Description:
CATH class: Alpha Beta
Number of domains: 1
Number of helices: 12
Order of helices and strands: EHEHEHEHHEEEEHEEHEEHEEHEHHH
Number of strands: 15
Radius of gyration: 20 Å
Helix content: 25-40%
Shape: globular
Bound molecules: uridine-diphosphate-N-acetylglucosamine
Structural class: alpha/beta
Largest sheet: 7 strands, parallel
CATH architecture: 3-Layer(aba) Sandwich
Amino acid sequence: MQRTTLITGGAGFIGCHVAKALLDRGHRVRVLDSLIEQVHGGRGKPDRLDSRVEFIEGDVRDPVCVRQALVQVDHVVHLAAEVGVGQSMYAVDRYVSVNDLGTAVLFQELIDQPVKRVVVASSMSIYGEGLYRDTDGAVHEAVMRGPRTDAGWDPVSEVGGKLVPVPTPESKRPALASVYAITKYVQECLTLTLAPAYGMEGVALRLWNAYGPGQALSNPYTGVLAIFASRLQNGERPMVFEDGEQRRDFVHVEDVARAFVLALEHSKAAGQVYNVASGQDRSVNEVAVALARAMGRPELTPEITGKTRSGDIRHNIADIGKIQRELGFSVNRDFENDLVELAQWVALQQAEDRVQQASRELEMRGLVA
Length: 369
Ligand code: UD1
């Protein structure tokens, strides 16, 4: 029997790729998406959303829409969310409403129309700072950044010693450093608590920084690679916060989509949380330089602002051992090639660079300093 999967927020960057991956696996796919202006720019349903998808325009906070969207559904992938870490620090009510009330309404309706499994997109943001090791090899789990000192941007141990980031496993305790992180953790908790209470299976995927064709280029609160791509395409240098040496793990959106398929289909995934990343970390400066090269603008070197964005963490790199071992997830990509693919896609897009405006919004509120 053909399974039907509902993807909330399925018209977004990750959603379009998950929809395609599920359709290719033989699922029937329905998407519920409110096509928010900040992401979709008022252009309506994106062309890249597979034409085989059954599309419903509506808000995940609207019980009537959700009820209709859940009719005869076997699985749910819950992606509908506001995603900007910086913006979440001032648009507090909007982030809590969309992300947490949205998840609450979804589960309220799932009580009446349960499904087999719900997979929610959580985030590495819930860890706050990743795991660190000191010079004696001791692991530090509860690292927090204090106010910036002359010693630099990196967090230091309680005794002021040097710390280096090491891969962060799922067992690290959450440390919620932004409103966005708080809302993602609540989404995760609602899913893992309510699904089993009503005979469903819940899974949470903690995503690192997804990139690839289809990112919302004109959304100044989107991920750093899309922001840089939009700047470069408009002949502007990428604007780097801090000193640009902060490290992340950039994971291609097709790998993210494969992780969702595994999380939905693998029997072992029920009730679990998994990190989803590439397993390779890079600094923000490295990706800015590599992208400028891939886009044929190597002269547009990173502009180091020396400022910190409130809510940002310094380093977080991923341990992907659990999803590899339990679900057979693997990543086999060439980052440089992926950037060339991204550059080719960007070259065909209209990217409005709204980054200056977004920076002003944050600066006005004292959230970049
Ligand atoms: C990002 C996602 C978040 C996702 C998480 C998973 C966005 C907006 N945030 O958070 O939804 O859950 O990954 O890992 O997509 N930076 C610059 N210049 C810029 C923009 C950002 O230097 O113009 C820096 C930031 O200060 C930060 C790093 O780049 O140090 C990454 O920022 P960002 O792409 O916003 O991602 P995360 O905060 O890691």
